[in-house]
UniProtKB/TrEMBL annotation:
SMART domains: Iso_dh. One of its GO terms (biological process) is L-leucine biosynthetic process. The keyword Cytoplasm applies. Keywords: Amino-acid biosynthesis, Branched-chain amino acid biosynthesis, Cytoplasm, Leucine biosynthesis, Magnesium, Manganese, Metal-binding, NAD, Oxidoreductase. Pfam families: Iso_dh (PF00180). Homodimer. Belongs to the isocitrate and isopropylmalate dehydrogenases family. LeuB type 1 subfamily. The record marks 135, 185 as: Important for catalysis. Substrate binds at residues 90, 100, 128, 217. Its EC number is 1.1.1.85. This is 3-isopropylmalate dehydrogenase. GO terms for cellular component: cytosol. Its cofactor is Mg(2+); Mn(2+).
Length: 350
């Protein structure tokens, strides 16, 4: 199993180090090689996604990423911003499906800002299309019209792009509670009428899965009001970006949530849902559990090793049950630990 490891920026190197330790502890036949992506790559090579990294990522079976970005690169030319590296690797590897689970562990019910009875037992999977929508629409940019600046872009999807992401969602639902909620804005955005039409057509291929539809504004409200009604939510790039971040905070900390971005053959890029957290970088206090759980997703989806994935997830649950907490999920009476100590606890639980 060849894994391209991209520590990235901010807290990325710290949390990746713990995930790598966990993978090595499993005694699997894994080859891991590090490369640069993001701001660190810009500093070293002038490019956020340099040629050497591209070569390694293309040759690998999977990619494990920490995080990219930081304020020191905010004023760079657009093509030299860290986020362009992330968009670049997604596009080059054909990663069209982003899977973000939002799971509330029982031990962390009090960490959520919502009442425990509203979120206890929460287990949602958000499937987000990753290569289309307004992020990649053409044309895009800023023009001056009648003396005023005018920003513009277009939202676009082809029927085949919509159908393939919907099939990912339905296949995932078959392994869960067999419910898919497709999210659009067809009452205002005519282009998303196509999304709903294709969702209805694709749903007929899965008669054993219940399909529902929801407008994105209502979906945002329902995630706060009654989140446990959802099993699998599927939507486009922009709506998915927003809704998955909202869902992540239902669990109390985005530091607990992994993600997977997959191609058509289940080659994937695996990363925590949170960002580079430059304010705590280098302090040894970041929560590595989302990255460790991302490694578990990698073993499950790309390498089809359910046993190893389950071992990691069971170890994380055990650590939480033992009361270990990093600062983002800490509450009185628990054992407050740093990044390395949390990794030690997971290794001990394994």
């Amino acid at each position: 199993m060849k894994i391209c490891v991209l520590p990235g920026d901010g807290i990325g190197p710290e949390i990746i180090a713990e995930a790598v330790r966990v993978l090595k502890a499993l005694d699997l036949k894994i080859e891991m090689e590090e490369a640069l992506l993001g701001g660190c790559a810009v500093d070293a090579t002038g490019s956020p996604y340099p040629d050497a990294t591209q070569k390694l990522a293309l040759a690998a079976d999977a990619v494990l990423l920490g995080a990219v970005g930081g304020p020191q690169w905010d004023n760079n030319p657009r093509e030299q911003r860290p986020e362009r590296g992330l968009l670049g690797i997604r596009k080059q590897l054909g990663l069209f499906a982003n899977l973000r689970p939002a799971i509330l562990y029982p031990e962390l019910a009090n960490a959520s800002t919502l009442k425990p009875e509203v979120v206890a037992g929460l287990d949602i999977l958000i499937v987000r299309e990753l290569t289309g929508d307004i992020y990649f629409g053409q044309p895009r940019g800023i023009e001056v019209r009648n003396g005023e600046r005018f920003g513009f872009n277009t939202m676009h999807y082809t029927e085949s792009e919509i159908r393939r992401i919907l099939r990912v969602a339905f296949e995932a639902a078959k392994k869960r509670n067999r419910k898919v909620c497709s999210v659009d804005k067809m009452n205002v955005l005519e282009c998303t009428q196509l999304w709903r039409d294709v969702a209805i057509e694709t749903g007929r291929e899965y008669p054993d899965v219940e399909l529902s539809h929801m407008l994105v504004d209502n979906a945002a409200m329902q995630l706060v009001k009654n989140p446990k009604q959802f099993d699998v939510m599927v939507t486009g790039n922009m709506f998915g970006d927003i809704l998955s971040d909202e869902a992540s905070m239902l669990t109390g900390s985005i530091g607990m949530l992994p993600s997977a971005s997959l191609d058509a053959n289940n080659k994937g890029l695996y990363e925590p849902s949170h960002g580079s957290a430059p304010d705590i970088a280098g302090k040894g206090v970041a929560n590595p559990l989302a990255t460790i759980l991302s490694a578990a997703m990698m073993l499950r989806y790309t390498f089809a090793n359910e046993d190893a994935a389950g071992r990691i997830e069971t170890a994380v649950k055990k650590v939480l049950a033992q009361g270990f907490r990093t600062g983002d999920i800490y509450e009185p009476g628990m054992k407050k630990v740093g990044t390395r100590a949390m990794g030690d606890a997971v290794l001990a639980a394994l």
